[in-house]
Amino acid sequence: MTSSRVVGNMGKRWISKWNATVDTAPANDIEFLAINGQKRGGDLQWDLPPSKSHLIRLLALSAQSNQIITLKNVKNAGDDSRSMRRCLQQLGVKIEDIANGEILYEPGQSEVAFHPDAEEWRVHGVGSKGFSKPASVLHAGNSGTAFRILTTISANIGQSVAIDGDRSLRLRDFSTLIETLEASAVKVSRGHGEEALPLIVCGPIDCSQQVDLDLSKSSQPHSAWMLASAQFSGNIKLNLLGQAVSRKHSDLTHRLCTESGADFSNSILRPWIPYFAQTEVIVPRDASMISFAMLATKVLQTKTIITGLPQTEDALGNDILQQYSSELGFSWNENDSNVELSSSETMAEGSEINLRDANDLLPPLAALMAISCGGKITGAAHAAHKESNRLTKTRQLLLQYGIESTVLQDGIEVRGAQQIHQPSGIVQTFGDHRLQMTAVILACACSANVANHNLHKIADENLLLRLSDYGINIEKKLFKNK
Length: 482
Fold this sequence. Notes:
The chain is of the alpha/beta class.
């Protein structure tokens, strides 16, 4: 590997002390986005952000290797990925920010900042036994994936480790993972009632016990156990139960682990040291974000140029959007990794789309179907276990724009050709970034005020900038409660 020089840190002006508080406004004030739907015209440019699903898993594997791994294409990584990175740094993993082959800033062991201009993250692996007890709480932000992986990794350090998250994460159900850890002799201290976090875990994991794992609510506990198995002292038998959901995500974890040397045959997790045949890894883009590009295309009645289309195996089930694009009323013209998307004259009526392996698409897809072909979304019962109950909250979000829908046992049904109406007050997005992003794009058809002004940054930091460049007027404002 060629050496890199450290460029000036300019007095570290870009570094700000991280703190766990999400909102900067006083508790009784509401920060929101004031969106004016007047558009400029022309084509809408939509560069897909890095896939947080890939990046979080690659960070976990890189950190447990004995190599120096460079993760490329991380520019504009979302807050979920940055939360995972920060927590790994707290566990003693050195991560450098790189741009144009140069180290932008080399943080000390106590630094957990990242450089906003970084195009690559260089991860110095600490091996299977190299994690150290963090000096403070590991804060996973909004990321359920990072939380579960970090919790399982921390459970094998052998000392007490505290893991927490933001308000939304604290309200989520982690009982499946917690019960498997407790059954493996890990001491778990947790709260009771509405908020079960923060969590304190103290292992190590007893590898003599079989782990019974229910896959019916989420694939993330399965991924967490696979990624943490590099640290195990012996083999653990997994007994997988229930009808698996989000299978593409657990398949991704399985693929990345086996490519780096894991042997999970016969549902047995065997300890291994992750090894990367190529020390430079390109992180694919997030195909689920295409759903928002499609919604914006329909709302703005424009042509959208999407760049960074991932390969099918990295689309994680979100390639279903291309499969149903013509039924939803789109012309999809693909050229290499770019897509030219525009509304077409024809569409199917009453489409039915199963989201068993792509439930993240639920909010924007329901909105899209409501203003176009109508239809039914099924196979998404597990969407109730995300940041919000996405079934009921999607209905409530759409209703604020005058769009009617019906919640089903495993999805949602909408009537087509509905009109978007201006909301009467601040649009509530229920602490869910995909609901907030859906609300922002619907607001482009009218004038609306949208709550949770920063939530899009969890997955797509440039959403507002992209819409502003197109001509949508977006301002951050503060409503002061008296």
